[in-house]
């Protein structure tokens, strides 16, 4: 429609320009569609717990002469309120990683500290499921980046590993330095023996609000935003996150991020004359 009309009008200017204009329009449309989807998704995700809270508060009022029922409904209200809080917090985190340039206040961040923090965050949940957590290889390694964002990224991966694993399994976190043409990278692999992710879903799990099993994700307090945040943090640090998985066997999520020494050298290069 519109794009074609524009292309017809500017056709005499040369096919190269026409192509650029059409591509621009298509890209603008795509961005607009993504934005609209996102707003629709957020609205839907907010509506679910708010709707539940509203119904539950009515139930509490109707059950005012049955203290046991009141207690039961109040408990469920608490769960829904927690869900709402998690969602809002993750939305804030996502908007922060999308808007802030992480390298503006980058510093060397010790991998050992990041791993300890991530493990701490999941300690309670891992304990109830009797999941063993083991970390190795982190000594002396540092990443060049934004401490808060890196902590959020690794924390999400470890949290997922625990959430999507059955009881009495093992979650491993292994770090190492790998040589790469643009400077050394730090690789952190989070491996679980959980439910795994099918090939079809593997391509989509990094999308905002995508969940393989929405019911299960909600049960564990998931928002569907965690891996989108991880992917964004990795990319804005000049790194990447990849996933390997075998259904029913487990998954490995691997973060590759710039090593502190190498990245700092690169930054210094920019300021050197000549
Ligand atoms: P959620 O808040 O639902 O965990 P994420 O963005 O972190 O959202 O993950 C998206 C989906 O990817 C999850 O709902 C889950 O289906 C799947 N997933 C993520 N990590 C794992 C894992 N370690 N093992 C199996 N499935 C996973």
TrEMBL record:
Coiled coil: none annotated. Residues 262-274 have a biased composition (Basic and acidic residues). It is found in: Cell membrane. It catalyses: ATP + protein L-histidine = ADP + protein N-phospho-L-histidine. One of its GO terms (biological process) is cellular response to phosphate starvation. This is Sensor-like histidine kinase SenX3. Residues 41-261 form the Histidine kinase domain. It is a multi-pass membrane protein. Keywords: ATP-binding, Cell membrane, Kinase, Membrane, Nucleotide-binding, Phosphoprotein, Transferase, Transmembrane, Transmembrane helix, Two-component regulatory system. It comes from Streptomyces fagopyri. GO terms for cellular component: plasma membrane. Its EC number is 2.7.13.3. It is an enzyme of class 2 (transferase). The keyword Nucleotidyltransferase does not apply. GO terms for molecular function: ATP binding; phosphoprotein phosphatase activity; phosphorelay sensor kinase activity.
């Amino acid at each position: 429609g519109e794009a074609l009309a524009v292309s017809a009008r500017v056709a005499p200017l040369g096919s190269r320009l026409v192509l650029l204009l059409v591509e621009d329009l298509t890209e603008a449309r795509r961005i607009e569609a993504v934005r609209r989807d996102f707003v629709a998704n957020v609205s839907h995700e907010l509506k679910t717990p708010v709707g539940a809270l509203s119904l539950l508060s009515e139930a509490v009022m109707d059950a005012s002469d049955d203290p046991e029922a009141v207690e039961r409904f109040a408990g469920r209200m608490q769960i829904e309120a927690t869900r709402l809080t998690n969602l809002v917090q993750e939305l804030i985190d996502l908007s922060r990683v999308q808007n802030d340039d992480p390298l503006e206040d980058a510093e060397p961040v010790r991998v050992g500290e990041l791993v300890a923090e991530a493990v701490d965050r999941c300690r309670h949940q891992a304990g109830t499921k009797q999941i063993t957590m083991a970390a190795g290889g982190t000594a002396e390694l540092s990443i060049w980046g934004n401490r808060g964002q890196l902590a959020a990224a690794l924390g999400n991966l470890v949290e997922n590993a625990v959430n999507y694993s059955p009881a009495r399994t093992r979650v491993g976190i292994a770090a190492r330095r790998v040589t790469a043409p643009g400077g050394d990278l730090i690789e952190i692999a989070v491996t679980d023996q959980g439910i795994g992710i099918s090939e079809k879903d593997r391509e989509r799990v990094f999308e905002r609000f995508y969940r393989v099993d929405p019911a299960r994700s909600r049960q564990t307090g998931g928002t569907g935003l965690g891996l989108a945040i991880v992917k964004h943090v990795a990319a804005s640090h000049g790194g990447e996150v990849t996933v390997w998985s075998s259904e029913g066997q487990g998954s490995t999520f691997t973060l590759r991020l710039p090593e502190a020494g190498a990245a700092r050298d690169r930054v210094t290069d920019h300021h050197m004359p000549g």
